């Protein structure tokens, strides 16, 4: 049977916008030691905008990028399509391919276009320069010929820094960020919000491996992961406690999670920990 206190705890958490899928997760919550966060959409708003366009023909570059990204639902893709601002003739586009953690490749009027990070360029043997920019780089290439790049910047959620400080106050010993984004962008975000450890440039499968390492090293205690993407589902399922964003989160992430944050804000994790600790006191 389920102890009554659990129902009270789950009810109290739901009033704070936290959906807890079972009483046992209250137990894990109150004993958490380490919280691992996905960056995009979790610590940052996930609302990207194009801050720089760099190439010989910038209008053409933006047009190719927008056409290439027009089938992708990735926030990066949507920011590029939005910046382009013109109608996209889908009849010109064929052979759409999205490569997780890399970018996209499509055929536009018979010419193959690539838009994505340096890994995508390397994968197709396209020579692209290393660029030092504050943001995510999207390289654009046509028929394996590098054309230029766009810089896409994301904004940190205003509440992230305080929420992380609060978690430390509530006894969380370590915070970690896992991201597919570049090292430079990732550490820049981590420094601003106060994250202890950063693992960048991870593919979806790397994220699972990284969580396995964190879980098995013996020093991290009970580990939660907080994420929102389709790619995050295996990681959410693997850790001691999976926490998903309810509004922006993908269906797969919400399904795989043990706890869902209805307000897409990590503030509520502190509220949930407080409820869990209080529930424990009532039951003892
Ligand atoms: P995260 O949520 O941590 O940013 P993702 O796996 O969603 O991780 O993306 C990792 C990286 O892959 C992005 O930072 C970007 O460089 C690249 N990427 C993924 N999808 C796209 C896309 N549609 N267009 C351009 N780049 C992309
Ligand atoms: Mg993500």
Automatic annotation (TrEMBL):
Domain of life: Bacteria
Name recorded for this polypeptide: Cd2+/Zn2+-exporting ATPase
Family in the record: Belongs to the cation transport ATPase (P-type) (TC 3.A.3) family. Type IB subfamily.
Species of the source: Dielma fastidiosa
Compartments (UniProt record): Cell membrane
């Amino acid at each position: 049977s389920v102890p009554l206190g659990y129902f009270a705890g789950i009810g109290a958490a739901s009033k704070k916008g936290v959906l807890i899928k079972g009483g046992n997760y209250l137990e894990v919550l109150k004993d958490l030691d380490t919280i691992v966060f996905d960056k995009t959409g979790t610590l940052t708003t996930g609302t990207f905008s194009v801050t720089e366009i760099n190439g010989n023909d910038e209008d053409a570059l933006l047009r190719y990028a927008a056409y290439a990204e027009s089938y992708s639902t990735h926030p990066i893709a949507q920011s590029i399509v939005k910046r382009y601002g013109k109608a996209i003739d889908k009849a010109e586009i064929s052979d759409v391919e999205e490569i997780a953690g890399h970018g996209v490749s499509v055929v536009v009027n018979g010419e193959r276009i690539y838009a994505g990070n340096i890994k995508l360029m390397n994968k197709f043997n396209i020579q692209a320069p290393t660029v030092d920019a504050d943001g995510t780089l999207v390289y654009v290439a046509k028929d394996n010929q590098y054309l230029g790049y766009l810089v896409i910047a994301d904004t940190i959620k205003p509440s992230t820094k305080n929420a992380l400080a609060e978690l430390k106050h509530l006894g969380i010993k370590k915070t970690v960020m896992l991201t597919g984004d570049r090292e430079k962008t990732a550490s820049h975000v981590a420094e601003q919000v106060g994250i202890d450890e950063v693992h960048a440039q991870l593919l979806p499968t790397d994220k699972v491996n990284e969580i396995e390492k964190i879980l098995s090293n013996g020093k991290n205690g009970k580990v939660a992961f907080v994420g929102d993407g389709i790619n995050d589902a295996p990681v959410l399922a693997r850790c001691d406690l999976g926490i998903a964003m309810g509004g922006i989160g993908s269906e797969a992430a919400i399904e795989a999670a043990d706890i869902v944050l209805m307000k897409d804000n990590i503030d509520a994790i502190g509220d949930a920990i407080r409820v869990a600790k209080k529930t424990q006191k009532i039951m003892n």
